[in-house]
Amino acid sequence: MNTPKALITAAGRNQRHLPLQTIVDREGYPRSVLVQLIEEAVSAGIESIGVVVSPGDAELYHRAAGAHAKRLTFIEQSEPRGYGDAVYCGRQFLGDDNFLLMVSDHLYISRNRERSCARQLVEAAAAERCAVSAVQATHESLLSSFGAVGGRLFDGRSGIYEVECVIEKPSPTQAEQKLSVPGLRTGHYLCFFGMHVLTHSVLQTLGKMLEGAPDPKSVSLAAALDTLGGHGRYLAVELAGRRYDLDERYGLLTAQLALALDGEQRPEILARLVALLADTR
Predict the structure, then answer these.
(1) What is the 3-state secondary structure (H, E, C) of 103-116?
(2) Domain encompassing residue 22
(3) According to a count of CB atoms within 10 Å of the terminal CB, is the N or C end of the chain lower?
(4) What is the mean pLDDT of each run of 10 residues along the chain (281 residues)?
(5) SS3 122
(6) Cβ pair 219, 82 in contact under 8 A
């Protein structure tokens, strides 16, 4: 299963400024969040990237992309009609191709320097020849921030699950009733990582759902993904890495610290943190 394109959604009112922020990478160089997301896709062998933006934002994103701007195709979401609609806006750019979908308000750090999170996911989709979502075990206190999946181990293999149910931002009660996964710690659920490899059928499903919806904002990507299991295999994979949600309180700071501590200057950063913690003024 080939994945030649990527789609980054960046039109949300609360998230649209985050990809433009400058953050210091693990090598110590300041770069925009957008550049780091683009390089995440490129690391998986993807050269053609669509970015869904709000009207008037394309020029800002073009500048933030720097030398990578030539890889980008900008797609406007004319109105704030929700995340499902934002993904559906990419249909002409994507055509019939499989695609890597990433949200613009997350950063990803792989525990394997040779295989980025995106590369791990694209390789998993190629090996299993189906749509695959990356997931991360997440405490129930954070369920209101993520879509979550329920399922069972696929072929008894650790870290890969056959998805049986998808719920957008479930309540703890919903999660306990429908999303429990054997083997996870108590109070933890498989929540989306902000990264998926999807097929054209997801866009078709979104189109049908949007066509019949009284309010487009009510159509979520999670609802479309929930139908995938009935049309073939759909898997979730725990990657060797972590996601960092920039939109949560201190999210950008947490991501910055994680990047710094993952780099070669880790001892220096730790020493500075110790000095900061020791300063009681």
Answers:
(1) ECCEEEEECCCCCC
(2) 5-278
(3) C
(4) 95 88 93 97 97 96 96 95 95 97 96 94 96 95 92 88 94 92 90 96 94 89 88 91 93 94 92 86 64
(5) helix
(6) yes
As beta bridge partners, residue 150 has: 165
d(CA 131, CA 124) in angstroms, rounded, equals 9
Report the alpha-carbon distance of residue 30 to residue 40 in Å, rounded.
Answer: 16
Query: d(Cα 51, Cα 119) in Å, to the nearest integer?
Result: 19
Is residue 244 a contact partner of residue 105, using CB atoms and an 8 Å limit? no
Please check whether residue 228 is in contact with residue 221, taking contact to mean a CB–CB distance below 8 angstroms.
Answer: no
Number of domains within the chain: 1
Q: Which of 98, 108, 44 is nearest to 71 (CA)?
A: 44
Q: Which two tokens stand for residue 72?
A: 């980008």
d(CA 8, CA 164): 26
Whether 39 and 27 have beta carbons less than 8 Å apart is answered as no
Residue 138 to residue 260: CA distance in whole angstroms: 23
Tens of pLDDT along 40-79? 999 999 999 999 999 999 999 999 999 999 999 999 999 9
Q: pTM for this structure? A: 0.93
Distance CA 74, CA 7 (A): 10
- Would you call 162 helix, strand, or coil by DSSP? strand
| Amino acid symbol at 218 | S
